[in-house]
Write a structure and sequence with these properties.
170 residues; elongated; alpha/beta; Signal recognition particle alu RNA binding heterodimer, srp9/1; 5-stranded mixed beta sheet
Length: 170
């Protein structure tokens, strides 16, 4: 039983631990939320105005077949996404590089055809399983024979000596 003087101390330490855990959880979730970047949609004309006023920090182009999009990082910390025609990408890149803005152009990796799955690992695992089953069966058979041999010896030792019939010499 806990004495009456220790009970308030235990409650206080439990409350402190619970509060500390909640504070760590709150800090962790706010840190995770801070790392997510939300891109706001913006027009191409607004991007050109921002480029002219030197408000753009960095550009990342994501071209597609006819219309791509560019991720824009502004100097004030905002992030925008702008749809553009891929034919106008070269002009935007030239304007951005002339202002010394870092430009990244994403390239999609071509998907390679997957190799046909040879079930080599399945065959290896099956072979190992069969080998283990054979080893276990052999060990069980050897153990059974050993136990039967011991039981026969015990029966022979436990049986009383048979008296020889009269007339036989031992």
């Amino acid at each position: 039983m806990i004495s009456s003087t220790r009970a308030p101390l235990i409650r206080k330490s439990a409350l402190f631990a619970a509060g500390l855990a909640c504070a760590c959880l709150a800090l962790g979730t706010s840190a995770l939320a801070a790392t997510v970047i939300h891109f706001q949609p913006e027009s191409l004309s607004a991007l050109k105005v921002q480029l002219a006023h030197h408000e753009v920090h960095a550009l990342a182009f994501h071209p597609a077949s006819t219309q791509g999009h560019v991720h824009v990082s502004l100097r004030d910390g905002r992030h925008m996404t702008v749809a553009y025609a891929t034919s106008g990408q070269a002009a935007l890149v030239a304007v951005a590089r002339a202002d010394g803005i870092p430009v990244a152009i994403a390239t999609a990796k071509p998907k390679t055809a997957a190799k046909p799955a040879h079930h080599k690992l399945r065959y290896i695992a099956g072979g190992i399983l069969v080998a283990v089953i054979i080893v276990v069966a052999v060990v069980l058979l050897i153990d059974r024979r050993r136990k039967l041999g011991e039981a026969d010896e015990d029966r022979a030792a436990d049986s009383p000596a048979v008296a020889s019939p009269p007339g036989e010499q031992t």
